[in-house]
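Fold this: Glucose dehydrogenase [acceptor]
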Amino acid sequence: MKTWLATSLGILVAVATSYYFRWTTPHQFVRNFNKSYDYIIVGGGAAGLVLANRLSEDADVTVLVLEAGNSESDKPVYDIPYNAPKAQMTEADWIYRTVPQKHAHFGMKDKVGIWPQGKGLGGSTLLNGLAYVRGSRHDYDAWAANGCEGWSYDEVLPYFLKTEDMRETDGFDEEYHSRGGPITISDTTKSEVAQVYLEAVEEIGFKVHDCNGNNGIQDGVCRMQAIVGGGQRCNAARGFLQPVLERNNLHVAIQSHVTKVRIENKQAVGVEFIQHGRKKSVAAKREVILSAGSVGSAQLLMLSGVGPKDHLTELGIPVVADLPVGSTLRDHMMFFTKADIKKPVSYTNAKVFTPLNWLKYYLFGTGLMTSNAALESQTFIRTDPDSKTPDIQLTLVSTLEEHGDSYGHFNYRDEINEALFQSIHGLDAVPEGFSIAVVLIQPKSKGSLRLASRDPFDYPILDPNYLADPEDVKTYIRGVRHVQKLLKTEALKKLGTTVRTIDIPGCREKIPDSDEQWECFVRHLATTIYHPASTCKMGPLSDPTAVVDPQLRVKGISGLRVADCSVMPNLTSGNTMAPTFMIAEKAADLIRGKVTVKPRGS
Ligand SMILES: Cc1cc2nc3c(=O)[nH]c(=O)nc-3n(C[C@H](O)[C@H](O)[C@H](O)COP(=O)(O)OP(=O)(O)OC[C@H]3O[C@@H](n4cnc5c(N)ncnc54)[C@H](O)[C@@H]3O)c2cc1C
């Protein structure tokens, strides 16, 4: 009776607050457009909404955002940080697929990987893992050294700070954080697993520090910083759009799929799009800015005649500019190692989704549901001593149930699923334990994105070409050996830790624990960690692999920029959301022709 009452109360509060938390109503989105706008932003994702906010600060310009998806703000269930994996494979996800992989995905059906990417206002920040990671000083210094003037670590750091509203006071490198920006960042580390894990990493010689501080030197282990404010996901729409949606000079349209940038005499003059089944077009007085993500921006450029000449000609698309769009696709991969623990201190759904935790979440923004999917710590290591920067990131996931919500998304073959997850899902009592995601952060393998057809609604051909470079596998194996050391520490013994062995068809005949067997596991099981980048690479005009210049202008076309994750010259060391916010903050200054941040040290 008591449980029933508590559950009913929890549900009542949940329903009431879900209406309270809605911050948009359908009439706030435009269906009748001006003939022209100063700036047209294509894509209302992480980058697009930063630009919408910053460009519309100037009251004398008009700004339009066109987003293909919906306003997802009426689905507060996805704002629960613990629910992050549940938002995948929903209406808020494009659900792309890779082509069959030659060197990886041996455990997936037809060797095809599923690629979630966010669709709707907020883009991938609607469904991402919320981890806030900036990358290393070396990443940006290398961009600058390779001709991207203005993009060194010291020059971009103020733009990271501009986005941020750091809510914590302890354990952070204060000098490298700021308060008052649109995106709230909190420490979401909660479980005893995480506390002990930090000790374990220290035991093998790494220091606990703030991986987003320390002058951009990441090496070491840190607690999880996540885009969580008041216990809720602070997606890009909540942080950047909600506070400015009433501005008269800002129009935002949803369900508006842009099909082409209109380019006349090498000048972008507007866009065509389909809204609610009707073809429409608007003109740009100043610029069109593509922020449609690493897939969308590259696809749109090619549909508009900007791309590799041979490919466009083959599809009958008139070539406006012959540029290597989609030719340098890169992505990070993750591979899970797992351990069971005797002490019942990890997350399980039964412990997280209790009536009390629902109440705590909705009433106070506290409790276990505010953990971002049990992602609790990041470790950055150099497995290659000659590397200038970490090459492996270890993400602690303090549960064995993470696949309960997302294992179907990995597209593993049935017999692989059975071998990996039966012990979790076939038992009544879910085992206690944790996973460590080994992430390859400096992949050498490079893939491509190409159009499947001239139809803008056809998904492009996505070939990340994972693990094509044998060096990537070697790095992976060194990363796994590092985890093995970690799992043997005295600290982790306190939890009664035992390593879970992998036993999957296809790798059973290899010598147990040999490098050959680990290679087999990695080639079967490693999957995307959802960071496609570099499809519209930034570089100096002299760089034949670059699509945009360091001002993010598409080479040879005026009035057209790309500002999102796709412009990264190389993947940053870690998750890509924070760097994308930074890119868009800086892009806004480049477009407005003013510097809104104080240089470092001034
Ligand atoms: C499942 C998942 C988990 C992730 N976890 C993390 C994490 O924990 N931490 C982290 O740092 N990063 C994470 N990322 C990556 C991070 O979210 C992205 O790098 C970042 O959001 C990229 O921003 P963007 O602006 O380039 O693209 P997006 O945020 O994806 O936005 C692109 C927008 O453009 C829209 N669009 C596309 N085509 C068109 C078109 N033709 N017309 C109109 N609109 C269009 C899309 O619908 C989308 O809203 C994750 C990503 C995913 C998918």
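The domain at 36-592 is CATH 3.50.50.60 (FAD/NAD(P)-binding domain). The chain has one domain: 36-592.
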